[in-house]
Amino acid sequence: MGMPREWTVSQRIEYGREYLTRITRQNYGYDALAWHKYLWETNAGDYRWARRSEAKWARQVEAAIAREEWQQAVRELKGSA
């Protein structure tokens, strides 16, 4: 699931949501923790291939979504939907 480095955070989030929706036939929108939980439970897309701790990776997701840049991107995406 490669993304060009020059993409904005909004573009990366939207691409990821579209990709995950396509491969899982689920749609958790921009709720990264809900996606993490679903992917961990189902191992969709081989999500757990090198992950041993659900809690550890949940903390990684929480740290990412706590960033202002992430929050602003999600606000923009929700506003354009």
Labels describing this entry:
globular, mainly alpha, 81 residues
Percentage of residues in strands: under 5%
Helix coverage percent: 55-70%
For the termini, the CA-CA separation is 23 Å
Given as residue ranges, the uncertain stretches (5+ residues, pLDDT < 50) are none
CA gyration radius, whole angstroms: 13 Å
Tell me, rounded to a whole number, the average pLDDT. 90
Give the total of beta strands: 0
Query: How would you describe the shape?
Result: globular
Number of helices: 4
Structure described in brief:
The protein is mostly helical and 81 residues long.
Descriptive notes:
This protein has helices at residues 9-24, 32-42, 54-66, 68-80. It is an all-alpha fold. It is built from four helices and no strands. α1 (9-24) crosses α4. The mean pLDDT is 90. The protein is globular. The two termini are 23 Å apart.
Tell me the layout of helices and strands:
Elements: H1 9-24, H2 32-42, H3 54-66, H4 68-80
Helix pairs in contact: 1-4, 2-3
